[in-house]
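Work Package 4 report. The design task specified in the project plan requires that, given a folded chain encoded as structure tokens, an amino acid be chosen for each position. We show below one input record used in the internal validation round.
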């Protein structure tokens, strides 16, 4: 990519400004943890900035989501999803915990899904969850999802079919209890 008169940083910031919310929201849906999502999104931006000269300019969102997905899978495989250790108490007694999340898309997503649906998504193997989230939630095409995951389109279709089938079977009792079936 040619840099012209503007600095690499300026061009990078302009390019990612419009897609960063999607990167963060995808990280939040994958990790289901706000702090981990922030770390994943930030690490995605760092890696993307470092490799920005090699970006071919075709589909920035798919490229960033591929970096994000690879980071998530690597963290998951390395077992870095350790339980948080700590307390919410100080010497003065319990601390107030305030959710200062100002992310309307994440709040909407959380509000639309019941606990059972969130749990069903968490139970999906990471490959299926990533395919379902990128295609069904983020609205990427099969080709864009394939690019983001670094797999053939046929693999995306297979993972979607299996992921959706697992979600369907996992949520059958939930749907019956809510009167959907």
């Amino acid at each position: 990519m040619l840099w012209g008169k503007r600095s690499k940083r300026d061009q990078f910031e302009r390019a990612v400004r419009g897609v960063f919310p999607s990167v963060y929201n995808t990280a939040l849906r994958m990790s289901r943890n706000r702090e981990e999502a922030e770390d994943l999104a930030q690490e995605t931006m760092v890696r993307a900035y470092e490799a920005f000269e090699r970006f071919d300019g075709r589909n920035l969102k798919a490229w960033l989501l591929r970096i994000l997905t690879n980071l998530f899978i690597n963290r998951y495989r390395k077992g870095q999803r350790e339980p948080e250790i700590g307390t919410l108490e100080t010497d003065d007694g319990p601390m107030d915990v305030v959710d200062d999340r100002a992310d309307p898309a994440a709040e909407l997503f959380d509000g639309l899904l019941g606990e059972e649906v969130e749990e069903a998504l968490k139970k999906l193997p990471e490959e299926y969850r990533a395919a379902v989230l990128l295609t069904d939630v983020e609205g990427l095409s099969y080709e864009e999802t394939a690019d983001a995951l670094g797999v053939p389109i046929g693999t995306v279709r297979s993972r979607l079919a299996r992921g959706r089938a697992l979600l369907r079977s996992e949520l059958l009792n939930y749907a019956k209890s809510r009167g959907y079936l």
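The first helix runs from residue 8 to 17. Validation will be extended to a larger panel in the next phase.
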